[in-house]
Design goal:
The complex is a heterotrimer of chains A (287), B (373) and C (280).
Chain A lengths: L1 H34 L1 E3 L5 E3 L2 H7 L2 H31 L7 H9 L6 H12 L4 H8 L16 H25 L2 H9 L4 H12 L1 H16 L3 H6 L7 H11 L4 H35 L1
Antiparallel strand pairs in A: 1-2
Helix pairs in contact in A: 1-13, 2-13, 3-7, 3-10, 3-13, 5-7, 7-10, 8-9, 9-13, 10-13, 12-13
Chain B lengths: L1 H28 L3 H11 L1 E5 L4 H15 L2 E4 L4 H10 L10 E5 L8 H4 L17 E2 L2 E2 L6 E12 L12 H10 L4 E4 L5 H13 L12 H5 L2 H9 L4 E4 L2 H9 L5 E5 H10 L6 E4 L5 E9 L7 H11 L2 H11 L23 E2 L6 H14 L2
Parallel strand pairs in B: 1-2, 1-3, 7-8, 7-9, 11-12
Antiparallel strand pairs in B: 3-11, 4-5, 6-9, 6-10, 6-11
Chain C lengths: L3 H36 L20 H9 L2 H32 L5 H8 L7 H15 L4 H26 L3 H9 L4 H30 L2 H7 L6 H9 L5 H37 L1
The chains are: A mainly alpha (287), B alpha/beta (373), C mainly alpha (280).
Amino acid sequence: MNARRTLTPYLLLIPGLAPILVLMTLVIGMALTRSVTWTDVSGNVSLSLEAWRTILGQDQFWRAFFYSARIGTLGALISVVLAYPVALWLRRPFPGSGLVSSLIKAPILVHGLVAAFLYVNFVSFQGFLNVALVGLGFAARPIRMQNDPYAIGVVILQVWKNMPLAYLILSGSVSAVSDDLLNAARDLGVGTLGRLRRVVLPLTLRSLQAALILIFIGAAGDYTFQAVAGPTNINSMAQFMVRMEVDNGLQGWSLSAVVAVMLMGLSLFGAIALAGLVQVLVKRVGR
Amino acid sequence: MLKKVALFAIAAALPLAIAQGPVEAKELSQMSWDEIVAQAKKEGDITWFQWYYQDRFREDIKAFEAEYGIKVTISNGDYKANQDKLLAEKSRPEGDIDVMSLGGSALNTFKPEEVFFGPLKPLLPEGSKLRYSIEGVDNKGYAPAFWGNQTGIAYNSARISEAELPHTLDDFVAFMKKNPGEFGFNTENGGSGPAFIESVARNVAKDVNYDDGKTTPEKLSKLAPVWDWFKANQASYVITASNADSVTRINSGEFKLVASWEDLIASLQRKGEVSKDIKLYVPDFGMPGGGNVLAIPANSKHKAGALVLINWLTSAKIQTQFAKTYGIAPQNPDADSSVGLVPASQRKFSTVWAAKPFGDDIKKTFISKVTLN
Amino acid sequence: MASPFPRAERWRNRLLILLALVVFFLALGLPFAMAVLWSLVDPSHPWAYPNVLPPVLSFRRWVEIWTTSGLQQALVNSYMVATTVAVSAILLALPTAYAFGRLEFRGKAVAQMLTLLPLAMPLFVLAMFYVAVLSRLGIYSRFLGIAIGHTFYFLPYAIRLLTVSFSGVRQDLIDAARDLGASRLTVFRHAYLPVLKPGLLAALIIVFILSIEEFAISYLVGAPDFTTVPTILFSYLGYNFIRPSAAAVSLILVVPNVLLMLIAERLLKSTGASAGSGKG
């Protein structure tokens, strides 16, 4: 009876947890093994670091790598920076706060591809923005903004889609900060900014980090926004990965596996770095 | 272990797939056309892998479905994905593809007798009339042409007059200098931009054999002056996202010139999607023209049906209809010749495509040397 | 002393609400209005330079998209996959969520972390090498491939949502029912079901929507011929870019999901309410 009791929870875990672990092991294992195998021209497969050498020696790869790192960082930081004050503002309900809160969450319901289309349509030559600019006399001719080379469009889309997510994650923990604590701090003569720095920020650090990590991983691994609205003169990591597979015949899988492993590494370490950075910052301003 | 099993399965399936082809070919080849049609009706449905105008072909194909009672499913994939699938499943005994559309020169990149069922020339009732040598590649009767098309430069006549059009490479450089950002072409998702790149290459790097599909690093390095040409003018042209993106944007007034397809502009215009202001010409330095072919994968489950569909698509009646609605060059000698967009005097500037896989490498090298650099 | 401050705050809030409405209008209302306008451009009258507004509006585009784009097949595929995925993910998640929500055991926190693993993986990497795994295993059915991929990938969401539901079940009600000698079924019906039901439905709907919207796995596994609604939209945005048609497909993808999501949110709120009342 006792043994059964202790075993039961673990047996219950199997149906839910096992598929996840199996899938992840197979996929990661596949990427890792493919990255260290090489198919030569006559189709012989051998263990080799050739794919690593080829990819890491490519300028284009590193441009894609840092590009994705940049998009991930900008997307995550801007989303959180925008969402945080809103979450603070809506901490306690007031007339109209429900409306604002549901408006903010609306983009979550819009598919990323649709968002990308809406954006491209909005900034295109015939788009509303250009019609307005020309109509109001700010520009003589429509301005070309589609697939802009600085990836402003991609960052706007990332923020548009992820700011609500950041808001959702942050609002829970922000409203969980107890009023008693804040009142006590106020009674001790701590000003608004001081309360934010010393009470609210440290208490919401965990969800701040969670939001940054989730958004960073999504934005750094983006394919669709980049494919639809991104600059044509650079690839994102996901795009580069797919292109390596398609363009390189027999060696395609090995090359794209290296990119995949590097992208996983970027997601992992980039997310950790961001989370660590925020921790240090919060500690410092809280002092 | 798993790998061994998979390899073994492939090794076992491969000869089977190859062996299966000729056996059935014999069976079908011993049938009369009426028997083949009867067999096709028995098979019931077919899947056609076509990479453009799928929505419009779904309309066109209704006449075929009504005539033969055979249901046709047209896939939604793009060219690369379709070709990848064809090659990925060629070792399977039974594949999902019954009829495969391919660019004429694609047949150079793999052996038709290994991948395809046929030759179709003796099996089709009009087989001997059709064209099997296209874009410089003779596919030995395996894949008849059903689509002839020409690339060129589309211009928006509401924004640029015919007299201002650039006709030589020097004209183009001058045009781009004077009108920065007014010329666009794509590198991915469609062949019109790559056609322009190829044409520039032919005229800048003349000591390269473009009709030989062989591709080596040395041969590609001879194209360096081409990349220099593009880099020198990089600030003055715009890379678009696809064939369709180029057309959409010239239609909206964003560009004066884009690289495009005659049939793409013509068909969108006839449908009304694109303004009549958009016109097309072939510059004096030449732009490639060619066509697309239809083939039956060796592991198709519905070969009789596929034959009947190919026969229908290449018939004089349908080819005439395609010429009218899509602006193609018809591939059946009995069909009415197209009323194209390109002035007849410029037809002589049409060149063949650079042979593949070298032609593909020109595009890939362009992307890595020019766009991504 | 107390009154001037709240009044200033009220005005500040009103101003901010106004600002939020303006931002919302610019970021969502206007782009959608543009999409609606584009989707109504009559197919035989192009909206081209130098027209500022479309010359002729009609519903013909919608009819055309519906009959010729393969959208019907894609909708059938999407909804079949999503139904399969939602049901199987919930069934797989239930026991695990029960363990997380109602049992205490060693390593629970680690196990909970592990279930979130897929979320830490770049989705395109996962999809790409999932395709490689499928072909290695010899699974050629695209339906099966996508359905299995989605079920596994969305399990974390189902587990998370159901865990919350399970932990909202009140122990005192279970105990009371047991004390009254109720059978297991009765205990389940009276103590568990009322709390679980909204959460279950919400989880079903959310996984259903996630599956319908998922692009990477559907695109890479299904390419080129097994299409779902997002893959069709992607082809309309890329290779076959025709702006008015893309507008129509976009709207078709968004509207049903928004409605479903609103229902799910309602349901989740009611779980939250009952869970909250249990504590209060």
